[in-house]
Amino acid sequence: MSKTINIVVGDDHELFRDGLRAMLEKDGTIKVIGEASNGAELITCAEALKPHVVLVDIMMPEVDGVKAISILTKQEIPYKCLVLSTFSNSQMIVNALEAGALGYVVKNAAKGEIAEAIKKVHEGYPYYCRSTEMALTKLIAKSNFNPYDRINKPIFSEKEIEIIRYICEGKKSEEIGKLVHLGTRTVEGYRQKILEKMNVNTIAGVVIYAIKNYLYRID
């Protein structure tokens, strides 16, 4: 893997792009090598510069983010796309994932999360924003987005599967511990191991992985 992750940013707000560039360059491993203010420019810029990851705002003029993602991810060597959005665009986020994006993060995410998302997508794994609400999680889980068919799947023990199901129900470690007759710290250890096996960073990631891989069912 390259030491520096080169990215191109597509967003129609120059002030946001400037702030994002300044924040990401503090990380030390991410470099913004190109910017675009609309979808058409973004496609041209990405094709010219060949970045490792393309950050795409869904709501862009000329060519919207979903269409741009669809074009970029259908190239001979597909681009890895990460969606920048707001949660008011839940269906648009789902549309972008179905179009080929590997993950999404909100523009006002906590410091460091956008960099974390870029690194995860660069590695080829999906990323779901930490503040994802259950309604959006279920929308994604029920959608045609499924990156797991091309990722090696780990084997989970019966106890891990039991804990995964309780996590999907929104239960905290203390509650789970009482249900499975384990201490809270032991459950925390299981949770961390589950995150590592799934290669996810968030509860939304656990829920979507579990549903897509038939470890948990929703109505």
Provide structural commentary.
There is one protein chain. With 219 residues, the protein is α/β, with parallel strands linked by helices. It folds into 2 domains: 5-130, Response regulator (Rossmann fold, 3-Layer(aba) Sandwich), CATH 3.40.50.2300; 150-212, Arc Repressor Mutant, subunit A, CATH 1.10.10.10. The chain has 10 helices and 6 strands, in the order βαβαβαβαβαβααααα. Strand 3 (53-57), helix 3 and strand 4 (80-85) form a beta-alpha-beta unit. Helix 8 packs across helix 9. The model has no long low-confidence stretch (mean pLDDT 91).
Could you list some keywords that capture this structure?
219 residues, six-stranded parallel beta sheet, Rossmann fold, 10 helices, alpha/beta, 14% strand, single chain, 6 strands, 2 domains
Topology:
Elements: E1 5-10, H1 14-25, E2 30-36, H2 39-49, E3 53-57, H3 65-72, E4 80-85, H4 90-99, E5 103-106, H5 113-122, E6 127-128, H6 134-142, H7 158-168, H8 173-180, H9 184-198, H10 203-212
Parallel strand pairs: 1-2, 1-3, 3-4, 4-5, 5-6
Helix pairs in contact: 2-3, 3-4, 6-10, 7-9, 7-10, 8-9
